[in-house]
Automatic annotation (TrEMBL):
Keyword set, alphabetical order: Hydrolase
Database matches in Gene3D superfamilies: Nucleoside Triphosphate Pyrophosphohydrolase
Membership in a protein family: Belongs to the Nudix hydrolase family.
Annotated protein name in UniProt: Nucleoside triphosphatase YtkD
Nudix hydrolase domain span: 23-148
GO molecular function, one term: hydrolase activity
Residue intervals passing through the bilayer: none
Pfam families: NUDIX
PANTHER family in alphabetical order: ADP-RIBOSE PYROPHOSPHATASE, DIHYDRONEOPTERIN TRIPHOSPHATE DIPHOSPHATASE
PROSITE patterns: NUDIX, NUDIX_BOX
Source taxon at top rank: Bacteria
Length: 160
């Protein structure tokens, strides 16, 4: 199994656990890596900058439902072939939270649903991301590469 480095976001320590691992607790957030060919869709989020669609899981939804909603609200994206790829373990002091991660194909781009939250969207290659992504580090790079490899495997073996 692939080993992912530890990352940092402010005072939070981030670890990524690839599928088939599942968080032992309900995820508080969901993230989706929405690919269109060899480019990933990112949104310019107020207060954060360019990042993949992500957000809190509402009490009445699953993390899968949350990433579909966030992709539409933040990037105006309809998704297909959504697949769970792992989860982040996020810890700060004694608090531990989990965030489920998914990969998907972008099927359609429409008007961004939450203009107050997202200032725009763009498609970027892996090579372009280090210069524009809000939190670029070895962990982020490796999870992006992991998501793209899974999508390529889906296409190669006709799992799409």
């Amino acid at each position: 199994m692939k080993r992912f480095p530890t990352g940092q976001y402010g005072r939070q320590r981030l670890q990524f656990f690839p599928a088939p691992f599942r968080a032992p607790l309900r995820a508080f957030a969901g993230l989706v890596f929405p690919w269109d060919g060899n480019r990933v869709l990112i949104a310019d989020i107020e207060g954060r900058g360019w990042c993949i669609p992500s957000g809190r899981v509402e009490p009445d939804e699953t993390s899968l439902e949350a990433v579909k909603r966030e992709a539409l609200e933040e990037a105006g994206a309809h998704l297909a072939d959504i697949q769970y790829i792992g989860c982040y373990h996020i810890s700060e002091r004694r608090e531990v939270r989990w965030a489920d991660c998914f990969v998907a194909h972008v099927t359609e781009l429409v008007e961004i649903g939450r203009q107050d939250e997202s200032k725009g969207r763009k498609l970027a290659t892996l090579e372009e991301l280090p210069a524009i992504y809000h939190l670029w580090n070895p962990l982020t790079r490796m999870v992006f590469e992991h998501s793209y490899e899974i999508l390529q495997r889906q296409e190669r073996y006709g799992c799409r």
